[in-house]
Write a structure and sequence with these properties.
Layout lengths: L1 E10 L6 H9 L18 H4 L4 H14 L7 E4 L5 H12 L6 H5 L5 H10 L5 E4 L5 H14 L5 E7 L17 E19 L11 H9 L5 E6 L2 E7 L2
Parallel strand pairs: 2-3, 2-4
Antiparallel strand pairs: 1-5, 4-5, 5-7, 6-7
Length: 238
């Protein structure tokens, strides 16, 4: 699969601009677990109130990339999705509290793309994926299929929120909340290939979307990621 990464945006607490991320990529470290949320003031206040932090992160990186594009397909990727919102629902159930229909409707995995479609008036193809440890690559596969069908660009958003403390023994792949948005277009700047049954790499220190960002902001031409006997090779053409 070959494609171009025409633009990118990313957000994490305290990291918003390209310069912020350039500095983080030079010296990556765990970001303080704050309650910070991205600025989505471009949305009306009534719409903002419906958005969880996960959704706000997705909108903050995706909205600027979508500007000027009509009929822009979206691929949304999150391994854990709206875990904090779901946890609140479970806590209410345990306390015999009445459940909020709005909370439930916004907890499903495709809620973010539904909100995106409504708020942007976008009716193009949209997909929500939860593909374990290599969701980014599966998102690229989906995006490349849309490009092959004639889309002039596809927006790919990968985002994870910090899970509730109760899940800390099971969820260890989200060092801090983050979102990465990629605007993919037809081209040959990047090639993504898959090797199977070839062993695995040592566990990565950072989520792969952030490792790819480090590659984007450096002179590196190769980025690899392994998961479940799948070895993904990202090759930037010279």
């Amino acid at each position: 699969m070959m494609f171009n990464i025409a633009q990118w945006r990313a957000w994490a607490p305290g990291l918003d601009t390209a310069d912020d991320w350039q500095q983080w990529c030079l010296n990556p470290s765990v970001i303080d677990q704050s309650d910070a949320t991205p600025d989505v003031s471009f949305l009306p206040a009534m719409q903002r109130r419906r958005l969880s932090r996960l959704a706000r992160m997705a909108f903050s990186v995706g909205w600027p990339l979508a500007e000027g594009h009509q009929h822009l397909p979206l691929v949304f990727v999150s391994r854990h999705g709206e875990t904090p919102r779901t946890f609140d629902i479970l806590r209410d159930l345990a306390a015999d509290q009445p459940l909020s229909p709005t909370q439930f409707s916004l907890s499903v995995h495709n809620a973010v793309i539904g909100l995106w479609s409504i708020m942007r008036g976008e009716t193009s193809e949209m997909t929500a994926l939860a593909a374990a440890g290599d969701g980014l690559e599966h998102g690229v596969v989906e995006a490349c299929a849309l490009l092959a069908e004639g889309a002039s660009a596809v927006l790919l958003i990968v985002t994870e929120d910090q899970p509730p403390q109760a899940y800390s023994d099971w969820v260890d792949d989200v060092p801090f909340p983050y979102a990465v948005g990629l605007l993919l277009t037809p081209g040959s700047d990047w090639q993504l290939s898959l090797d199977t049954g070839t062993g695995s790499l040592p566990d990565a220190e950072w989520p792969h979307a952030l490792n790819l960002l480090r590659t984007l902001l450096s002179a590196q031409t190769l980025c690899q990621h392994s998961w479940n006997k799948r070895l993904w090779n990202w090759q930037r053409q010279p």
